[in-house]
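Human: Can I borrow your eye for a moment on a structure tokenisation matter? Separate attempts, laid side by side, tell us more than any discussion would. Could you pick a protein and write out its sequence and tokenised fold? No explanation is needed for now; the record alone will do.

Assistant:
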Amino acid sequence: MLVYHTGYQIIKEPDVHYGRKNADFGQGFYMTGNMEFSERWARERKGYDTCLNTYELDLTGLSIHRFSRDEAWFDYIYDNRRGKPDALPEADVIIGPIANDTIYDTMGIFTSGFLSKDQVMEMLLAGPAYEQIVLKTEAAAGKLSWQSVKILTPEDILKYRDVVKREEAEYQREIGRILGG
């Protein structure tokens, strides 16, 4: 399977122990199988290239956990964001939807404590569903083979950011509707 990661460097050998433990699926190396979606994450940073890394991932022999946008997915994300121990320590790879509040600006409302768990889940189910693939173990990282890098131009980045802005506006309208405003 081809997978993609956008960042500010060529990453041939990712570190699964680098990154936030309180991300959606816990600590690991985050990618997607959707190149266009990976390009949307592109940002410019002075003095750095913006790199779209392409990899091939061989899932043979790995313990894979797949999530759908359902209560089990929500509970796993909810617990990870609150720093609870990983409920799936045996998983080498986790594949599932990205929680849209990490894509679009929700001003911290989901983790503010002012909303009930049911309200947060309803809002996380709003908007489009994009899939993330997270390598959780060294065994999984060993099955990832770097293929190439594409350096994104400032024009590319601007084009992708415009797509996100339009999607974000639609998403925020939907969140407003859910909150009754």
Q: What stands out?
A: The mean pLDDT is 88.
